[in-house]
Design brief:
The structure is a homodimer of 146-residue chains. Chain A is mainly alpha-helical. Chain A has two domains: 1-36 and 107-146, no CATH class; 42-106, Orthogonal Bundle (Arc Repressor Mutant, subunit A). Helices cover 64% and strands 7% of the residues of chain A. Chain A has helices at 8-16, 18-33, 40-49, 57-64, 68-80, 102-106, 108-122, 128-145; strands spanning 84-88, 96-100. Chain A has a two-stranded antiparallel ribbon. In chain A, α2 (18-33) crosses α7 and α4 (57-64) packs across α5. The relative contact order of chain A is 0.11. At the A-B interface, α1, α2, α3, α7 and α8 of A face α1, α2, α3, α7 and α8 of B. Chain A binds a DNA duplex (30 and 30 nucleotides) through residues 21, 25, 28, 39, 41-42, 56-58, 66-74, 76-77, 89, 92-96.
Chain lengths: 146, 146
DNA sequence: GGCTAAAAGTTGTTGATGCAATTAAAAGAT
DNA sequence: ATCTTTTAATTGCATCAACAACTTTTAGCC
């Protein structure tokens, strides 16, 4: 599409990601609301670990669309909070395999409930079909840029 | 809409803002490509100043959807780079009025060209009508959360 | 006018990001 | 078997964000 067809507000909003910022803030606020002291970014790492424990930091970087240093530090903070542990790779010793602690498992349901609450709040007044179409468009944009 | 109707990927993508992250990175990369050493966040401040010089930091915070400390530091960095200056408010001395330097004005066209380039790259293969609908949806979401 | 409350900015702390450079271990090449 | 190249992770540096606490100046109120 042609840029000249965009309004100023759309132009600005598109490039700065105001909506994503708002969603991220609300997510973190909803965690805090029930006494969960984790950040939205930490949640994004845990999200994949709840599904597939023992994966490497490299793999987490790929899944969460972050670079290796970011993951390294996110993992360090999560380790400090005793939500997961690094285990030195048995076969390949360059690699760390990441495992959740009991506490890391325990908070899953509460976290996911707040994540769903956040989506419900965000999606108020939005119909499913519009959402489908918007998601499809965002997928195209993502593939254009990644 | 109901959360249970979302796919896993959509759910994750929505809450983490992968697309916005990708857009922000590309924008910054496109600035760097032509030798402009400004961040995407700095651009978002300049964007409003190119339109309305002399506004306060408070006003910039409102416009860019950031808090006052964030704006304070963004302004400090932009001042270090000699792109703008703080002028102590003539009427109300609590306030700073922000003015662009000659250099701040000079980079406008180059910055906006790269911003438009970024949108073109992102929007490849997207038709205007789909974009309109997606923007309308994001506007609803933003108003739900702001 | 003088006291209190509100508003505009700043600073400190902690967590996150991007990029570049580095370390350690594995894989490939000859 | 040794040397070189890749790969996984970490560290350093600069910037940005959220939250809380603080300073300075203005506004409100009696």
């Amino acid at each position: 599409m042609d840029v000249s067809e965009m309004y100023h507000d759309e132009f600005y909003s598109f490039l700065t990601g105001r909506v994503s910022t708002a969603i991220g803030r609300r997510l973190q606020r909803n965690f805090k609301l029930i006494g969960l002291n984790i950040t939205a970014e930490q949640w994004s790492v845990l999200y994949f670990l709840w599904n597939a424990e023992g994966i490497s930091q490299q793999e987490l970087a790929r899944l969460t669309f972050r670079d290796k240093p970011s993951i390294s530090r996110l993992i360090s903070n999560l380790e400090k909070q005793k939500l997961l542990v690094r285990v030195n790779g048995s076969g390949d010793r360059r690699m760390n395999q990441i495992y959740l602690t009991a506490q890391g498992h325990r908070i899953k349901d509460k976290c996911m409930a707040q994540a769903e609450k956040t989506i419900s709040e965000a999606m108020s007044g939005v119909d499913t079909e519009s959402m489908r179409q918007a998601q499809a468009l965002l997928e195209i944009v993502f593939n254009n840029l990644k």
